[in-house]
Amino acid sequence: xxxxxxxxxxxxxxxxxxxxxxxxxxxxxxxxxxxxxxxxxxxxxxxxxxxxxxxxxxxxxxxxxxxxxxxxxxxxxxxxxxxxxxxxxxxxxxxxxxxxxxxxxxxxxxxxxxxxxxxxxxxxxxxxxxxxxxxxxxxxxxxxxxxxxxxxxxxxxxxxxxxxxxxxxxxxxxxxxxxxxxxxxxxxxxxxxxxxxxxxxxxxxxxxxxxxxxxxxxxxxxxxxxxxxxxxxxxxxxxxxxxxxxxxxxxxxxxxxxxxxxxxxxxxxxxxxxxxxxxxxxxxxxxxxxxxxxxxxxxxxxxxxxxxxxxxxxxxxxxxxxxxxxxxxxxxxxxxxxxxxxxxxxxxxxxxxxxxxxxxxxxxxxxxxxxxxxxxxxxxxxxxxxxxxxxxxxxxxxxxxxxxxxxxxxxxxxxxxxxxxxxxxxxxxxxxxxxxxxxxxxxxxxxxxxxxxxxxxxxxxxx
Length: 463
Known about the structure:
Number of helices: 15
Strand order of the largest sheet: 11-12-13-10-9-14-15
Strand content: 15-25%
CATH topology of the largest domain: Aldehyde Dehydrogenase, Chain A, domain 1
CATH architecture of the largest domain: 3-Layer(aba) Sandwich
Largest sheet: 7 strands, mixed
Mean pLDDT: 98
Helix content: 40-55%
């Protein structure tokens, strides 16, 4: 795949980039390794000041970087500005909290004496150079939620971003440089996927994190496993959205629209499978479909647009194939189900609601990365949980119920890294983020995330 900005609203290639050569990659690796040796010893106050400066600069740059994001991957301008704001917020959160999150931990003194020691503690030390392989769908956020905790822990980063967002990738490296970080603290590598293996196998690289497809995760995990290097993977999702009899159906339907079409549906944690109790099914479906029909699809640079194009022609075509397969096998398109008229130049697809889904349809098993929702009717909570867990993914989940017993049951039985009640899944720096099953392993954000790339060190002193 070429490294290029292809505007998904028009299909036009606006700018191309040459990938780094082997000598340039070597220079980046050498710079990162050398920088880590002194950056790891910097005090938290110094790291925090740098990260706060980066957040301030990002605030100043919001309008410009939002336009770049919109041009590169099609996100509406309002959403792109919100993404930049979330990144700045997360930088400031880690600048404030990292020192406390990584403070020395002191075991019970009785256990220390029982070990034969006079004192002992646990210290978190940075691992080193971390390779981040990141996707295009949230081109700032996916990177910052790795970079902010990693830098505050004393690590340094190498970014291999998606090949369709090169200008955003270069902006990130420049942002940290302008904030005062040494160049080796955070570097963007404009390289193709074929270069990842050699970089990850380099002894100067200590660990890797990847957000992306299941296939990409398998590849990176296999290489890192062979090298015995730590990885964190956040892969696909097919998140369930359960609506049970005690739900506020109006609120559930309104929120369902946003949960499905955020980022044109191109989000791992977007709700994708809507599993609705038969008692409220008809009311929910009517309101949900009406909300999807009311959305404005169009130019993402138009402030009135709700849903922009998909990021690529291939992504639009893959989504279209899933819908067409479902309809051929008996599904009903309550709304949408085709490319919108008048927007032939870009990679657009109508917000779509499908019913009558059966296990034999591809869409029942595969992740829908676009504004397409599947709606299931279920008889009771047991069936709802069975449908919800009938997937290879386990990233997050959403449940609408006021019944505390049902809430407890869902926390116990839903196979997911998160359970969100009476609202939609959303990431926040204070809460751990990640999944189970083929959605990956490890956690980002919160104290759990910052410790993923730390050496958890036991320090023991004899009596």
